[in-house]
Amino acid sequence: MVEFFRSLFRPERSSTTAKERLRLVLLSDHLSLAPDVIEALKADLFAVISRYVEIDASNADVSFEHREHDVAMTANIPILQLRPDRPPPPPPIVREPDPVTEAVAQSVAVDALEPEAMPPAGSGETVRPPANGSTPRRRRRRKPAQAPQVSQPQVS
Amino acid sequence: MRAFETAIETDAAVAPGAAVRRGRAIVITSGKGGVGKTTTTANVGAALAARGKRVALVDADVGLRNLDVVLGLESRVRHHLLDVLEEKVDLETALVRDKRNENLYLLAAAQSREKEDVDTAQMKALMAQLCETFDFVLIDCPAGIEMGFKNAVAGAHHAIIVCTPEVSAVRDADRVVGLLPSDWRPELIVNRLRPELVRKSKMLSVADVNDILRLPLLGVIADEPGLIVATNKGEPLAYDAASTTGAAYRAIAARLDGEDVSAPTVNTEAGLFGKIGAWLGGRA
Amino acid sequence: MSARRIVITSGKGGVGKTTTTANLGAALAKRGHSVVLVDTDIGLRNLDLVLGVEKRIVFDLVEVVEGRCQLRQALIRDKRFESLSMLPAAQTREKTAVSEEAMIRVIDELAEMAEYILIDCPAGIEHGFRNAIAGAREAIVVTTPEVSAIRDADRVVGKLTERHIPLRLIVNRIRPEMVKSGDMMSVEDVCQILSAELLGVIPDDEEVIDTTNRGEPIVLDETKRLAAIYMKIARRLEGELVPFTNLDSPNLLKQFFTLWKAG
């Protein structure tokens, strides 16, 4: 009975299901049929990890699990200790100053000191960030405090 | 370009004493049983013969022979592949000529022997010998990937994979492709397509199948009940001018023969059926 | 408990062995029996795909035979039928990885765990076939009513008889309208040619493609025509005398009654 109702609500067409099942099963088949590729993958993986930590390579392994919607690789790598000579962490990423974000930052800073220094939100007036970092020149009397509503561009 | 090497004098000049190869040996294989290898071998062979090519069909399914029945030649088989390999009889004597076309010959399988009785090296030599006098040697491969398969592939230069739009068949076809010599570029025939089921998304489409297998598409054959009748009667549909399935086989033969038949496009839904319809309509 | 060990074979490929193994197994499980399905098609496994358990394979038959895991670890319990389990074949090995003796040992061990063992046989009559029949005590030969299939089934019947393995026949993919018009052999024709006792007649049904796409044995849906037929075959296997379905052909019906009375 349950199956009958389930069949009424079966959303996916069986050809789509079939194709997806085939994709996964073949991926799984291909992985198990390419032991040399797996060995090379393991060697590379262990080499990279070994730059940061000392590992017990003889007890390390990777396996592939055919899951519901994908085939996942699981690596089981016993770690002995951090390497003292490991590569240093990468430096923090310094972003180029974004004009709009800068303006907002400036306005917040200015607000903190001079609540009436900024043009009203939505007025269309923008404040150009001064090159020397000093506070912007006063343009207009500011309306009662509102959060600046400058839309942030996406930083990818 | 599917043109095969024809016998030319320079061959002999380059390698004096070497046998001059006229033809190409193509194994028709699938992995999965029952997808239409034997029917395809018989029909493509018949269609090639109808184009004037000299064709030899070899049934490599030792112990489970069926190519003779599909061709309607079962009562004419006196000797078989193993008789030739074991030198009990010469090749010419063992070859059975087709009833309808004098260009078509059959080398039947042994029915009461085992596939393990065939020696791979001997098989290769025999196929080479056939290629000296025939334009096409089509080898009907047994199902599976055991000794029978290996022997059938051993003597060939090229492969055609026959696959139906069903998950098991596609999986097995994929496996077989992986077992063929890596420098081969096998071609695909999708058999037993049912457009109405594909339309209802209850069957994989040709595009679905080839998204997975990624082989050059040689042909698509829609399912036809008439094929059962034809097999029962031993009359390949390739000889039937009125049959759309026959037309599809003739188109495949034309392509194998190097003719640039309108390439089967593997696109979606409406386009696919339109194209297949036109293509099956005999515009070979 | 010692199980019934049944091999499902055919000679010809593609006639429905795997589909039959999956559905008959499910039908027996539905009727309360404990069932193990064994895929012996090493290198070209498909029972897992038809049953829809391909994502749950961890170990396989070859690993069991080579002692790399326990048999119980390799068995996959079906989530839909609690008394149904399956032992998958290996995909990356050859059939020669398993000997007939090893197969017998595995089947012997399984026989202590279940009431029914259904062994899915590969196509052909090579090493894989010999492995599959090695552990069997009964056989179901599946054929379609076509010349090639019957011819191959005949070869297989011969080999089974040589080994004194009793067998029964399932005629699959029958198209009653084609039998009526004389374009297809009848079930009686097939039984006569093969001199075999009939176990089941299954009509051609496009639903099989759809359910295989999903990995859902058709027996799951009781509203499907084929589900009822598989259930009847299961009952016949248990020993019950179940009349054959009227497939809408007076000729067929008459033949079935004759056969039924014959046993």
Please provide a written account of the structure.
The complex is a heterotrimer of chains A (156), B (284) and C (263). Chain A is α+β, with helices and mostly antiparallel strands and 156 residues long. Chain A folds into two domains: 12-82, no CATH class; 95-150, no CATH class. Helices cover 37% and strands 12% of the residues of chain A. Chain A is built from four helices and four strands, in the order H-H-H-E-E-E-E-H. Chain A has helices at residues 2-8, 14-32, 35-50, 99-113; strands at 53-55, 61-66, 71-76, 79-82. In chain A, the strands form two sheets. In chain A, strands 1-4 form a two-stranded antiparallel sheet. In chain A, strand 2 and strand 3 form a beta hairpin. Chain B has 284 residues and is of the alpha/beta class. Chain B has one domain: Rossmann fold (3-Layer(aba) Sandwich). In chain B, 40% of the residues lie in helices and 14% in strands. Chain B is built from 13 helices and eight strands. Chain B has helices spanning 9-14, 37-50, 67-70, 81-85, 91-94, 120-133, 147-154, 167-179, 195-199, 206-213, 226-233, 244-256, 269-280, and strands spanning 24-29, 55-59, 96-97, 104-107, 136-140, 158-163, 187-193, 217-222. Chain B has an eight-stranded mixed beta sheet with strand order 3-4-2-5-1-6-7-8, sandwiched between helices. In chain B, strand 6 (158-163), helix 8 (167-179) and strand 7 (187-193) form a beta-alpha-beta unit. In chain C, strands 3-4-2-5-1-6-7-8 form an eight-stranded mixed beta sheet, with helices on both faces. Chain C is of the alpha/beta class and 263 residues long. Chain C is built from twelve helices and eight strands. The longest helix of chain C has 16 residues, at 147-162. Chain C has helices spanning 17-30, 47-51, 61-65, 71-74, 100-111, 127-134, 147-162, 176-180, 187-194, 207-214, 225-238, 250-262, and strands spanning 4-9, 35-39, 76-77, 84-87, 116-120, 138-143, 167-174, 197-203. Classes of the chains: A alpha+beta (156), B alpha/beta (284), C alpha/beta (263). Chains in contact: A-B, A-C, B-C. The interface between B and C is large, with 39 and 38 residues.
